[in-house]
Amino acid sequence: MFQLYEGPRTDGMGYHSSHPRGKEVDILETCLQLSSPELICKIPNGDATRRVKDGLVSSSGKEKLSSRENGNGLGKRWLIILGLLFLGCAIVAGVGLPLALELRSSHLLEARLLVVKRILSETPLIDGHNDFAWNLRQSGGTAKDFPFEEDLSKNVTWGPEWQTDLVRLRRGNVGAQFWSAYVPCEAQFLDAVQLTLEQIDLVRRLTSKHPGGMRLVTSSAELEKAHKDGVIASLVGLEGGHSIGSSMAVLRSFHLLGARYMTLTHRCNTPWADSNLVEDPNEDVPLDFHSGGLSGFGRAIVKELNRLGMLVDLSHVSTQTMRAALAATKAPVIFSHSAARALCNSSRNVPDDILRNLSLNGGLVMVSFDSAHLSCSTSASMHDVIAHITHIRKTAGVNHVGLGAGYDGIVRYVQSLFYKCAEEMTIKFYSPPTELPDVSGYPLLLAELTRDRRWSAADIKKLVGGNLLRVLKEAESQSSALSGQPPAEEWIAQELIEDSAYCRYHDT
Question: Which residue, 56, 155, 432, 497, could crosslink 52 as a Cys pair with Cβ 3.0–4.6 Å?
């Protein structure tokens, strides 16, 4: 049964505040058991018909008058008793009973959305990935002149293709957003570090421009405080290990600026980690480096991320890199925007054996809303998202799944050249689910999940943000345990980067 009320937590997690309501829950359970299938009550909307157990009320026109009168008398007495019982339930449970009955006996979206809204008022919805910052840079906009406080789907000047703005973030009940500080692989060994600094600066300025709606946070405690204060927590994630220029010092500097996760690779190998594209025969990827997963320097990067309290993000990495990172890390990992490879055979998605290992590591997969990862095609539906969520839950467990839509980085096209004729090409447009076109759609997705009795309120809280809060806290705890350890001083082997020596300063 969908849980409208919860008892006190015993697992030590402090990301929501619920009160002991054991007696109320027991009474509510009794009411719901009476309501189905013996008694079906549609409250407050729907049929006024009450169906009572056979033998209590008879509706057969063939019975004798005396039997009907006896049955009616008995039925009246039972209706009075049941009426008093339901009245007591309503007094104890308040509005919970009507909502529970709606959830059990009807498909009313409004009732489910009310439950979702209450859940999201208690636990922040944390999205693991958003590409708005790079989208803004590519469009020529700046934090100063961009109308982020407007509903951009109605903005004629900027166009309806934008999927993120402050209005729709609020409409989607988003409690926290990881903004991707993405720079393209083509910048590796050139100005990737500078571009990443500029992307972090953009996120910080965008957040500071809207203090009434957003707040930059760098810890789980600050995130929870922002949610309690009714503002959206903004966090920074580095998308691609090429952003640090193979430098521990640069990694630490990005951490000081607020970065709280780093994706080890993007669409290219780094000198110390392999990208997922090495497994994809249909993709062209620079093969200058081969680490067989992670090199020794790559494992040192993972350990330094642990020491700093930054999350290790394994979206975009090869399966060998996933395994190597899981073996090296002392803290839970995340996949900030991926899905299940068993449902869509994309090298960007997570194989089942890795999903099973997450139950040991404590990490989670934050499900991407990109059709390329959901359905391996140019379109997808909300039920594709739910199918991936369900598969990850079944394989890894409910403690290891989250949301990482990837809005403002989903709608794009890919041109594929035919080998026989270079002038011909196919253009593929990838998009989010039709029912979830932008950041405002999360409540609809969660309302659909409430129709599945396997998803209790506690489970949905884990999905939307509870799991990521736990991971953040465990990473912070591991960082505290390593506080006495000095910063890493490893340097990348010079022979690995000698081909890029022309753009580097050489120490004498």
Answer: 56
